What we know:
Elements: H1 3-22, E1 24-26, H2 27-34, H3 38-50, E2 54-57, E3 70-73, E4 79-86, E5 89-96, E6 102-109, H4 115-126, E7 134-141, H5 163-171, E8 175-180, H6 181-192, E9 199-205, E10 208-215, E11 218-219, E12 234-237, E13 240-243, H7 249-267, E14 271-275, H8 279-293, E15 302-305, H9 310-333
Parallel strand pairs: 4-7, 7-8, 9-14, 14-15
Antiparallel strand pairs: 1-3, 2-3, 4-5, 5-6, 9-10, 10-11, 12-13
Protein name: ROK family protein
Pfam families: ROK (PF00480)
InterPro entries: ATPase_NBD (IPR043129), ROK (IPR000600), WH-like_DNA-bd_sf (IPR036388), WH_DNA-bd_sf (IPR036390)
Amino acid sequence: MSQPQALRQRNRRQVVQALLDHGSLTRPALADELGVSKVTAAAIVQELQTSGWLTLGAGTAGRTGRTAQTVHLASHLGAALAIDLQNDQITVHRQSVVSADHDLQLVMPGPVATADGALSALRQGLTPGPFGAVRVVVISVPAPVDHAGDIQPPNALNAFDERPLRRAVEEAGAALRFENDANLVALDYASRTPWLQNLATVIERPSGIGMGLILNGELYRGRTGRAGEFGQIPVASGRAVGRLETLPPSRRIQATARALATLVVGLDLEHLVVNFERGDLLVQTLRQLLEATADGDTPPLDVSQEPAGTPLLGAAHLSLHLARQRLLTDAMTLGTLTHVA
């Protein structure tokens, strides 16, 4: 590969990245942003515009009195699709890859999180819309997901088969990623608080109790992807041993608080996010346990409560991030605008 070609590819990627960051820029502003000459910036814009990647709009008058045109990414460069699967409800969110706009927000109530229900929701999301073809699909599931992206037991979804979903996404030319719902909560929160390097999110849903762990700034899955299966923690109940999430509500709060206190101290966490129906009581119980065992040197733990629905928000954030990475890769080679290359 010749150096001029490599430079053109890098410059195209940088132009697309700058427009993703800023929304729109004039060609002189793009030149300043990229650190290239105005002639070079104009040539890159012309190439991307001819290929259908960019559109031009009216700008504001410059110092010479001439109106500088603004450069925008084309609105049809693709969409990112997020789906959250639960046995009692499926939610779907489709958004533009190049803006904050969305064109589909679907809620399917009832026992629809079977293979047929999930496939129906997916196909509706993959239907072409005003933003162009879907580039990336992220599906939130109440099950462990290993390092290879495969769903592992225990899966709380009833009669679920992922294979038809994989085929449908492949046929649409998109990319698919499954992710644990609690992990998506953690990823979403971590993206909004990048200064926190060690945190945990614990959520209670109809499908059970899960936890997402961010350690040293990275999502922690454990050896098999089952890290965070909080509801599966064994708890003694009389002479029997059961799972934490099967305990009666009052005992579940106490047991959850004790398990969280052990985790917080053992991992030296900075922050804990709680998404529980009785979150206030859980936080109060946890704080009492931590204060009773504090030795004066234990750093304070910040605890926050997040509203329900954050797995879908996390899936939307992740799908947008992955779709933009694919868009940037395609920009280097002026790849197709109709599907993920």
